[in-house]
Write the structure tokens for this entry.
Amino acid sequence: MNRRQFGISLVAAVGASQAFGQPAAVRAPDVPYEPSPPEVVGAMLTLAGVTSRDVVYDLGSGDGRIVIAAARDFGARAVGIDIDPKRIEESNANARRANVADRVRFVQGDLFESDFSEATVVTLFLWPHINMKLRPKLMTLRPGTRIVSHVHDLGDWKPTRLQSVMTQEGRERRLYLWTVGKS
């Protein structure tokens, strides 16, 4: 099969999946799905100082647990972006079960191409090279926007604050907080 035939086949497959109500994957995920433990989720949102005035964006939102916790526990509006259509479907179901579907939104998309400029808080649990690829975009967010990363830093961009969280399994997890314009 040549490139042209492959392109036509891919377009047909994408069109067919969308025609049957299944969102098409944009591309393969950059990192494997690994949910943040509940105690880490709460600590990330607390570290960021999330309030009901915030718009929280979780990049690589997985099953939606950070987005849902931001709405349910802190009263924030929240948006999750994930490339995997199965995760988006799961997130929406989880939001309905948590009774926060009216305050959250899940977007299937490539986080490198997505617009999250309205965020006042951004959360990350990605890999170091992905964080570094996102860093230029994160640094251009409006001053005062808080960014919290679970486990991985943003290179030589000095965090505003560091925090360790102990999981129920006895694993220590590092959280990093940056404030755009202050870090």
In short: The domain at 27-179 is CATH 3.40.50.150 (Rossmann fold). The two ends are 51 Å apart (CA to CA). The chain has one domain: 27-179. Residues 3-19 form the longest helix (17 residues).
